[in-house]
């Protein structure tokens, strides 16, 4: 799942080298922290949060195989 978020985020931003992802695995869930450059924040979130919601939807679909919940925080 980390790779999915990384590929999507790097494709959206102007500074792909400043994308960093921290993943914390818990008992029944994953917490993924996505950090991007301040000037790329709008590109990752999108208008009314549509792109962020789409990223969360894709990652949640990938997580259903492992039967775990995924939480993505954009920092």
| Binned strand content | 25-35%
Would you tell me which CATH topology applies?
A: GMP Synthetase, Chain A, domain 3
> What's the alpha carbon Rg, rounded to whole Å?
12 Å
* CA(first)-CA(last) distance: 18 Å
- Total number of domains: 1
CATH homologous superfamily caption:
K homology (KH) domain
Strand order of the largest sheet: 1-2-3
How many β-strands, per DSSP?
3
Low-confidence stretches: none
Form type: globular
What does the average pLDDT come to?
92
The secondary structure category is: alpha+beta
CATH level 1 name: Alpha Beta
**Do you know the CATH architecture?**
2-Layer Sandwich
Most strands sheet:
3 strands, mixed
User: Which series of helices and strands comes N to C?
Assistant: HEEHHE
Please count the helical segments.
3
């Amino acid at each position: 799942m980390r790779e999915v978020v990384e590929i999507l985020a790097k494709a959206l931003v102007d500074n792909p080298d400043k994308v960093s992802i921290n993943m914390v695995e818990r008992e029944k869930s994953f917490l993924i922290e996505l950090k991007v450059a301040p000037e790329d924040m709008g590109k990752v979130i999108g208008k009314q949060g549509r792109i962020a919601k789409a990223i969360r939807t894709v990652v949640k679909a990938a997580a259903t195989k492992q039967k775990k919940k995924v939480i993505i925080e954009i920092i």
